[in-house]
TrEMBL record:
Native source species: Gossypium davidsonii
Lineage top rank: taxon: Eukaryota
Cellular component terms (Gene Ontology): cytoplasm
GO molecular function (one): metalloaminopeptidase activity
Keywords: Aminopeptidase, Hydrolase, Metal-binding, Protease
Keyword rRNA-binding: no
Protein name as it appears in the record: Cytosol aminopeptidase domain-containing protein
UniProt cross-references to CDD domains, sorted A to Z: Peptidase_M17
Subunit structure of this chain's protein: Homohexamer (dimer of homotrimers).
Amino acid sequence: MAHTLGLTQPANIELPKISFAAKEIDVAEWKGDLLAVGVTEKDMTKDENSKFQNPILKKLDGLLGGLLAEASFEEDFTGKAGQSLVHRLPGLGSKRVGLFGLGQSASSPGAFHGLGEAVAAAAKTAQASGVAVILASSECPSAMSKGNTAAAIVSGTVLGLYEDNRYKSESKKPQLKSLDILGLGTGPEIEKKIKYAEVVSCAIIFGRELVNSPANVLTPAALAAEASKIASLYSDVLSANILTEEQCRELKMGSYLGVAAASANPPHFIHLCYKPPSGPVKTKLALVGKGLTFDSGGYNIKTGPGSSIETMKADMGGSAAVFGAAKALGQIKPSGVEVHFIVASCENMISGKGMRPGDIVTASNGKTIEVNNTDAEGRLTLADALVYACNQGVEKIVDLATLTGACVVALGPSIAGVFTPNDDLAKELFQASEASGEKFWRMPLEESYWESMKSGVADMVNTGGRQGGAINAALFLKQFVDEKVKWMHIDMAGPVLNDKKHVATGFGISTLVEWVLKNSSS
């Protein structure tokens, strides 16, 4: 393996293997380290004698001699979302009993995902090996099937348990070996949902690790190698084509190559293709991700407070979402759909051969761009990637990019902006996000704003004024999409990182997988 700057290489840490199972066992008879009970505020209602009215809590409290009701009262546990209460109490087959708040009502994947995360945190603290989760309310919310509820709990547990310790000199391994989900039924349907949640969660972890990797490790060549590994791993359905700088020049990708010119690390244009193992292809899709493994801003260098230059390893978050989705779909193998995963990967650096403010670059569709800001580089790489995607004969394109600070100002750190002229495509995406629990908000494509993007010497400039920056960026991308193709742009600059934990979120992966499946025959 080639030496990196700083001689840093990630440790090869295997993900913990956890056995997930849906079981129908009486809570009193389950044996293990932690029995976790998900409760709503309504479930915590007590009678005049301070006894639980909920049948499951009433039964547990009876077996524990009233200690559960007593502890919940003393610690003011009311079932609010985020609250938890874990005690080691004698009287059950489990060493510990925990109550985990779900809020007023649990009706979304996010609520049960949060439950899984909270259980994972408690399991870590208790060094628990065997855990069971049960919901105090026996009936699942009508909006979610029992299988989807179980899947959300599994996903939350896997992701809550995971810590990226590859770059730490010491790390602790979690002890959790098994998690039983009680009271939601058994059988092939729920087992299929649990398996799906495991696959997608592992893909999210893969995406997180890509974004967390520093730019001295994850170069464009390294990102291409990771993509190629996915194709090799699922070679029955995935193929890889990595275009060199010379091949990109032959395709006239002047916009992309202009951004890449300053870096000592050569660009890699990455194209994975998923084809179903059997049967006809009814729909062709493309997922296009921004793949800047580092963005200095170029000659318009990122400086001063708020420039966030130190987090610019995350400027390939769109590509991580695309390749994470490829990894999951390679295992799920949906029928009837062909998917192209496209990333124009490079670095935006500074050197004597780099792109200057005022330069004019020519994209592969022949359109010319006056570069009035070298720090608006992502859209320049995406321009040629979108033209390439259209040339694959796809019917729908979704591109994802950490594109603008303006979108973060508008929507904050946890919501991605959605831009599309197509209402049907927007509907598809929002249906997928309901299942994934990720947050999106549709933004306007205000055509009158294009006036600010006009150049006196070229077809367009690459940035307009400060106002409506995220809209201007989306309007720019629209110039490189064939009118016959349904297209959507997702600006995920906000949710790519967890600001509190300073780590990647893996945002977009689960929604993309859901969207592809909704377009498949599976």
